[in-house]
Specification:
By secondary structure, the chain is mostly beta strands. Helix content is 6%, strand content 27%. Among the domains are: 147 residues, Ribonuclease Inhibitor (Leucine-rich repeat, LRR (right-handed beta-alpha superhelix), Alpha-Beta Horseshoe); 89 residues, Sandwich (Immunoglobulin-like), CATH 2.60.40; 95 residues, Immunoglobulins (Immunoglobulin-like); 60 residues, no CATH class. Strand 17, helix 2 and strand 18 form a beta-alpha-beta unit. Bound molecules: 2-acetamido-2-deoxy-beta-D-glucopyranose (4 copies). The site of one 2-acetamido-2-deoxy-beta-D-glucopyranose has 4 residues, from loops.
Length: 691
């Protein structure tokens, strides 16, 4: 191509035509058919050989048949967008050098009306955008040189097995956007040299085993916009020379890894726009020539798991963008990607990219992270550190921190290493799973819970029965996989209820809950039955109050809020989520002798409030009776608890974990308090020494 471009440039300069590389036509003085334009025009063969072709252009003329007296020297005949429904060989008689015939966007309904039986020089035939419904046996016989055949955007429903007989030089075949429901291997027996096959946009839902076996020269295969749900292990067998494949916009729910292993020469792989939720260990491995991989526009994609990509020695560009739910890339997702230069991760739901991920890519040159909800804490700290091998940020001007609040809207690149915390809380992205799902009796369910943090968090699930399930454990129909996915196999009404995933490390924890409704199971009452006056104070002491209520509805959004009216400027409003099914709550850490307003919110229009006043302290009470049980509880809390240092002398954040795992009814957190340092000692000083 380089040579051609230079050649063209010279021609242009000689002709004195503008400075751009727009290819110009030259006059061709022949008797030209009425209304058509005859010119010498640049032309490229399907193999990119350049020619100056005598061209007759009769596009858009409402012709119902071919014009008469076409010049004998014609090489390119353009009849696009007319009303032609038949052509006879006699109309093309004598055009021995005709190389391209464009009949696209006309009125052909059958190739029986395309009676061209002897065009020995024809390389390119355009029949796209007609109304062909069926292709019979040997439909294009008599075109022995044909290299390029366009049949896309017709209404083809059926194609005879021997349709392409005689086309043994064909290089490109466009069958996309028709109404085919199967791909028949027999079509391809006549096409030993085919290099490009476009067959997307047909309602085909499976590729049969060995479907493309005869196409051993094929280099590019486009299977976009079909209904493909899975690709069987042997579907792509025989495509020894395939370099590029596109599965864009199908219904694949997992990476067809076994089928891809049968493509030894694959360089470009497009899996964009498929409902794949997880890219799992081993999904892309040992593909020795893969250069570029696209995993974009996936509405369902949540996570790129440990060793998802392994030993792809020639992979240079990885594009994982515009995936609205993608919040997790395992720190060791990429293994042995020694040539990877360009990592595109913009427009996802990523809160961070682990430094380990970046360090695992020795050739990395550029990275794109903009339009992600980046949390500017320890996980992204490597950006501001003095790295020995700097990585270029694409669009650093629009790569912002979205958390913590004090760094919000700052550019990630401009936040210094010191400004970012050196350990960080787990974060379960809101996009990981919805807060409510409805399933059918007998369905298999997988709920994926992932969290990035430093130190690496552990994950577990609390199921409606109150049982805590850690990874690699199972219980009844439940199973928690190592990565944090909760699986329920064959769900029944018994599994309906409230689920919580907890991700915790030494710094704190994050939780995310969901209500599972099983169709045909106990119906969730949707009629707004108010909790009414049933919300009441059962017991009040100096520092705690026990509240109870009737839970008529099992709603996922319930929470409890409380506020003391000690002084007007000191209105610290606290709030905590309540597990569905809970009917009482022990409100602890209250101030003695204080008036509180406590409200239970069971939905947008359903709030009940009570007022209470805690008891005055009668006697100085250093610490509650330090029975062994209490000591044990306190030490457990110390382990699960850490406080952020006083920031500028007036604030610190405290994260609490549930205090009693065994009794979900007094689930307490996690809760976040912003307190002044002075309040710290008053509230927690004696109990929790500075860490
Ligand atoms: C066809 O092409 C050949 C080779 O370029 C040329 O010699 C011949 O004159 C052409 N025939 C017509 C009818 O233009
Ligand atoms: C707090 O509430 C009590 C009881 O309603 C009321 O008597 C008192 O005035 C309130 N104090 C403030 C500061 O609002
Ligand atoms: C409520 O919490 C307090 C303080 O942790 C504790 O002393 C009390 O026993 C609890 N009450 C109930 C009923 O659990
Ligand atoms: C809540 O009340 C408002 C106003 O009375 C009403 O428009 C709305 O539909 C109610 N929402 C629910 C969920 O009942």
């Amino acid at each position: 191509m380089g040579k051609i471009a230079i050649f063209l440039l010279h021609t242009h300069l000689l002709l004195g035509v503008g400075s751009s590389l727009v290819i110009q036509s030259m006059p061709w003085r022949v008797p030209c058919p009425h209304q058509c334009v005859c010119q010498i025009k640049p032309w490229y063969s399907p193999q990119s050989v350049y020619r100056e072709a005598p061209t007759v252009d009769c596009n858009d003329l409402l012709l119902i048949q071919l014009p008469t007296s076409l010049p004998q020297e014609t090489q390119t005949l353009r009849l696009q967008s007319n009303l032609i429904s038949s052509v006879d060989q006699s109309e093309l008689q004598g055009l021995v050098n005709l190389t391209e015939l464009d009949l696209s966007h006309n009125s052909f309904t059958s190739t029986r009306n395309l009676r061209i039986t002897g065009l020995p020089a024809l390389l390119s035939l355009h029949m796209e955008e007609n109304q062909l419904r069926h292709l019979p046996e040997a439909a294009f016989f008599g075109l022995p040189s044909l290299q390029e055949l366009y049949l896309n955007h017709n209404r083809l429903r059926s194609i005879s097995p021997g349709v392409f007989k005689g086309l043994d030089k064909l290089l490109r075949l466009h069958l996309n956007s028709n109404r085919l429901v199967v791909i028949d291997r027999r079509w391809f027996h006549a096409l030993p040299q085919l290099e490009v096959l476009m067959i997307g946009g047909n309602p085909v839902d499976t590729v049969q085993d060995l479907n493309f076996k005869p196409l051993s020269c094929l280099r590019s295969l486009v299977l976009a916009g079909m209904g493909l749900r899975e690709i069987s292990e042997r579907a792509l067998e025989g495509l020894q020379n395939l370099e590029s494949i596109s599965f864009y916009d199908n219904h694949l729910i997992k990476v067809p890894k076994e089928a891809l292993q049968k493509l030894p020469g694959l360089k470009f792989l497009d899996l964009n726009k498929n409902p794949i939720q997880l890219v799992q260990r081993g999904d892309f491995q040992n593909m020795l020539h893969l250069k570029e991989l696209g995993l974009n526009n996936m509405e369902e994609l949540i996570s790129i798991e440990h060793s998802a990509m392994e030993n792809l020695p020639e992979l240079t560009k990885l594009e994982i963008t515009n995936n609205p739910r993608l919040s997790y890339i395992h720190p060791q997702a990429f293994q042995k990607l020694l040539s990877m230069e360009s990592l595109m991760l913009n427009s996802n739901a990523l809160s961070a990219l682990h430094s380990q991920t970046v360090r695992s890519l020795p050739s990395l040159q550029e990275i794109s992270l903009h339009t992600n909800p980046i949390r500017c804490d320890c996980l992204i700290r490597w950006v501001g550190a003095d790295n020995d091998k700097p990585v270029r940020f694409i669009e650093p001007q629009s790569t912002f921190c979205s958390e913590p609040p004090e760094l919000k809207a700052r550019r990630v690149k401009e936040v210094s290493f010191r400004e970012m915390a050196d350990s960080c809380l787990p974060l379960i992205a809101p996009s990981t799973f919805p807060s409510y799902i409805e399933v059918k009796h007998g369905d298999n369910i997988a709920l994926h819970c992932r969290a990035l943090a430093e130190p690496e968090p552990s994950i577990y699930w609390v199921i409606p029965q109150g049982v805590r399930l850690t990874p690699s454990s199972s219980y009844g129909r439940y199973q928690v996989l190592t990565e944090g996915t909760l699986e329920i196999l064959g769900v029944t009404a018994e599994e309906a209820g409230f689920y919580t995933c907890v991700a915790q490390n030494l710094v704190g924890a994050d939780t995310r809950s969901l209500t599972l409704h099983v169709e045909g199971g106990d119906l969730v009452h949707t009629n707004t039955q108010k909790t009414e006056d049933s919300f009441e104070v059962q017991d009040v002491k100096e520092r705690y109050a026990l509240l109870t209520w009737q839970a008529n509805r099992n709603i996922p959004t319930a929470h409890l809020s409380w506020v003391a009216n000690v002084s007007l400027e000191d209105h610290h409003r606290h709030s905590t989520r309540i597990l569905a099914g809970t009917r009482r709550f022990n409100l602890t850490r209250l101030q003695p002798g204080t008036h509180y307003k406590v409200c239970l919110h069971m939905g947008p229009n359903d709030t009940s409030c009570v007022h209470l006043r805690t008891k005055e302290v009668s006697m100085p009470d250093p610490l509650p009776d330090l029975t062994p049980a209490v000591l044990l509880a306190v030490s457990a809390l110390l382990l699960l608890f850490a406080a952020r240092a006083c920031n500028g002398g007036h604030k610190r954040k405290i994260f609490f974990l549930p205090q009693k795992w065994t009794d979900l009814y007094i689930w307490q957190g996690p809760q976040t308090y912003d307190l002044k340092c002075s309040e710290w000692d008053e509230h927690f000083g004696p109990l929790f020494p500075e860490i």
